[in-house]
Design brief:
Layout: H1 2-24
InterPro entries: SPW_0924-like
Region (Disordered): 24-45
Keywords: Signal
């Protein structure tokens, strides 16, 4: 019975975390004006 109670508690905590993150929403800062570096830069010429 204890493993079932622990699983239910863990599931409830996970659902609460997801609902909290959904309620807060995405960050409002926007995006960075500089692009991310996606490749390793080559030697400078």
């Amino acid at each position: 019975m204890r493993p079932l109670a622990a699983a239910a508690l863990g599931l409830a905590a996970a659902v609460a975390l997801v609902l909290t993150a959904t309620a807060i929403g995405p960050p409002q800062d926007g995006t960075s004006p500089e692009p991310l570096l996606t490749t390793v830069p080559g030697p400078k010429k």
